[in-house]
Structure formats: C-alpha cells, structure tokens
Amino acid sequence: MGHRITIGTLAGIEVRLHRSWAIIALLVAWSFWNRFVLLGFGAISAVIMGVLGALLFFLSVLFHEFAHALEAQHRGVEVSGITLFLFGGVTEMSGQVRRPRDEFALTAVGPFSSIVLAAAFGLVAVYSGRLGFSAVAQVAGLLGWINLALGLFNLLPGAPLDGGRILRSLVWAVTGDRRRALRVAARMGQLIGALIASLGVLQLLLVPGGVVGGIWLVVIGGFLAVAAQGEIAQQSLGEALGGHTVGELLRREELASVRADTDLASAVERLRVAPESVLAVRDGSRTVGVLLLDDLAQLEGGDQGRAVREVMVPVEELQVVDHRAEITEALGEMGSGRPLAVSRRDDGEHRIEGVLAPEQLQRVARRTLQLGSWQESGASAGGGAPEQDLPGGGRWWGGGGAPGVPASSPPASMTPASSSGPSLDSRLAPVREPSPPITTSASMSRVTRLRAALRRPSRVRNSSLRAVPIAVPPWCRMPPTWCDSAATMASPPSIMPT
Fold it and tell me: pLDDT tens digit string along 42-62?
C-alpha cells in the first residue's frame, strides 16, 4: 500500500496514484512539449501547452476508468478504487461478475468513453481553429487522436485489455463455460503481447531513430503477455482451491493475538516474531480488533505505554466474510489490503469468529499453485516424476520435486494422496523430506564428507516449494483488477498519432 497515494474520491471511489505514474507523467509532458516546439510555438507557450495537455490526458484515462467503475457499481460489483500507474489505470473490483452480459457492459463502456472523448476533443479542435485559437486547436486535436487510439487499442481481443474481457464475455455467453472463456481470452492476450513485442524489435532493428519507440513497444508487449499468464494462473488457483473455505483455514492457521489491555511495547515484541504483519486483539474469548504493523510504525516512542485497544482497528471497520465463503472469494474481497473478519451466524445473529491476515491467504495461494504444478507434472509422467542427471553426479526428481533429493524414490510427503489434489493441510504445513544417512567413518576424506553433505536434502522450511518455477498472479499480492493499458499510447513523438 505504501506504493500508492490516495489523491481524492469520486462518487465514493478512491482515486490513487502509484509511484510509477511519475515516470509516464514526465514522459507524456516532455512528448507534448517537444511536439509543440517542433510546430513552431515558443518555449514558454510549449511548456504551458505540454503541461495542460498531459493533465487533460490523465483526466481522460481517469474518465475511462471511472466509466468502468460506475457501470460496475450499477451491475452490483463492489469497486475498491481506481489506481493510475505506469501503463495507464486499473479499476479495482471485489467479487465476481455473475453474468456474461454484465461483464460485456462494464467492460465495453471503457473504450466507448474514450471514443466519445475523442469526438469531443475533435469538435473543440475544429471550432477553436476556425476562431483562430491555434494553441487550443493543437492541444485538443492531439488529445482527440490519442483518445481514439486509446479506445481502439483497448479493443484488441486479448486479456487483460478491454477487448479481451469483451471476447471472454462472448465466449462465456456462447459456451456457458466461464473457465474456457478465460483461457481463450488469456491465450489471445499472450499472442497479442508477443506480436507487439515483435513489432518493437523490428522497429529497433529497421527504423532509424526508432530506439525509444521500439523499446516502448517491447515493454508493452511484455506487460500484456505477463498479465495474460497471470489470468491463467488465477484460474488454476480457483480450480485448485475450489471447495476450501475461510472457516477451514481459520481453524488450521490461527492468527497470533494479544489482549486488548496489553501495552504497545509488549505488542511490538509479539509482532516482531509473528509470521504476519497483523495481530488479532482479544477481549476474553472475543476478537475485538486488529493491530496493524503500518499503524504501529507511525506512532511515536512515547506511546509505548498505551494500551493496544487505543490504537487497534475495530473489527466493525474490517471487511466481513462468512465462514462458509471459499478462500478464492476471500482473496477477491481483499481490496483494501486489510485483514478480513470471519463471521458465523449463531442463534440468528452474526458473530466474529476470527480474523485472517492477507499474508495467510497469499501463502495458501502460492503453495496451492506450487503443489498443483508438481502434481500436474507428476501426473503427466504416469504418476512418477522423471529423473534428471545432475551436473556433478547424482539425480534429481523432475517435475517440480525437491532439488537435491536422491532418485531412489520420491519423498512420501510430496506424493499426491489422491487425484483430487493436495489437501489444505499440505498447503499450510512445511514439507519435510527424510534425510539419507551420512557415513561418519574417520577414514572418510574431507572431499567425500563435503560431497555427502552437499547431496543431503535441505531442512530449510519450505525450501523445496520455493524451488518450483511458477508464475504467481499479481492479484495474489494485490486485489484483482481490470487492467486497461490506458497509457500505452502515451509514448514518445516517434509513435504518437499525428
């Protein structure tokens, strides 16, 4: 959260700037200034026109995202906020769209709003030119072309662009299979990203003076391809965690806690060794709030004697999910980055059963994807992972197994219990492999002992899981977003529409 700054609210929707936005803001302002200087305007006039044009451009991006947000709210989808960043803007939405037509409507309104803005700027350019306001005509004309390009670019049929969302809604409506629709849109997004990156490489090699524009196209293509892969990983996570609830997770991995009357100095020491950046605050057997690391970091040293209850966040201010909600649904509700309060209906009333930290949900998500990738590779080999030769002798178990484990047999803790996938317990507990015996004879040479030690499996917690190559989707770290690469047309003059 420290990478984003809230600059205000529109219709109750927070608008934030990511720190990477400063890069694109400077680039856009410089591009506008350079263009107007080449058109013969004075240095001061060009600066004013460049700053004004850049401001109107980002207001156009915000207008695009705000159209998504308003339509989402109209369709019953909760909106957490809008963030402007290096590649444009994202509208952060919690929960899932329930119908294909809803997804189509709240997605298509974005490019439509950009095309409407293009027409409006075009009219301003035409009439201001007739009235002799050449500076206004130049700024408005440039913004009109950019918004038109922005709207058309976002209609490219590949995720995470708006066109990919539209394609997904259409495939969903025709086939009735949302998962299949997501994969089609994501694969198209990877293809489009690869094509854009290839065009960038060609521009670098063949176009004189096209270095900056070529690099920009390569970056855009890479961003689209990675984001599309993230959507596929998101779907895989949903399939693997289907059926597991937050209540189940809460029972297996309880959050560290302190009493409400504990002083902050003691709470800091408790938080220092806690696995998460949040402590549950209890009053007797009830969870009454949470103590956040970010809040403690802002306090002065003289506050150490204050009680925890004075600075905690009450559970009433947290997002509440039912204990029967699936873990994937809880991940979608984590829009604010704060802990989630888990409620249970008891005697007709809802009571708070406990609190889940974002790190707990993220950890389960990462381990699920990692174990899932191992299981898929093992299944493809007929239930056993293939062996691979090591450069220095010995063998590895392939398919995502633990590097360094001898090839005599796969570790029992890594063998899938059933075809239904690893249990939730296996995603929460560390993986421990048995260690082979090491000969300790006095006649063993130093080199022999060193080789034996190097072949011994590591006992570092979860080390084998981290060794599995895997693409973790961005929404495991941040809330799920609707990505519009809205600023991708905010490029140097060499690739700007004229």
Answer: 999 999 999 999 999 999 999
pTM attached to this predicted model = 0.61
**Tell me, what DSSP letter sits at residue 133?**
-
Q: Is the pLDDT of residue 386 over 70?
A: no
Q: How many CB atoms lie within 10 A of CB 254?
A: 13
- Structural domain ending residue among the three candidates 315, 337, 356: 356
How many structural domains are present in the chain?
2
Is the same domain home to 203 and 162? yes
Options 65, 231, 329, 433, the catalytic residue: 65
Do 236 and 261 belong to one domain?
Answer: no
* Domain co-membership, 20 together with 128: yes
Euclidean distance between CA atoms 329 and 252, whole angstroms: 18
Q: How far apart are CA 431 and CA 436, in angstroms?
A: 16
| Segment 283-342, tens digit of pLDDT | 888 889 999 888 888 887 777 888 998 899 998 888 788 878 878 777 766 655 778 888
The DSSP-derived string for 359-398 is: HHHHHHHHHHHHHHHHHHHHHHTTSSPPEEE-TTSSEEE-
CA distances from 434 to 235, 412, 431, 465 (A): 34, 9, 10, 16
Looking at the fold, whether 239 and 270 belong to one and the same domain comes out as: no
Range 355-369 burial, b when 16+ CB lie within 10 A, else e: bbbbebbbbbbbbbb
- Domain holding 303, by residue range, is 256-356
Contact in structure between 167 and 161 (CB atoms under 8 Å):
no
Residues 6+ apart with CB under 8 A from 277: 271, 292, 293, 294, 357, 359
Cα separation, 213 vs 204, whole angstroms: 8
Is 333 one of the catalytic residues? no
Cα angle 246, 250, 253 (rounded to 5 degrees) comes to 130
How would DSSP label each residue in 49-98?
Answer: HHHHHHHHHHHHHHHHHHHHHHHHHHTT-EEEEEEEETTEEEEEEES---
Q: Do 34 and 88 reside in the same domain of the chain? A: yes
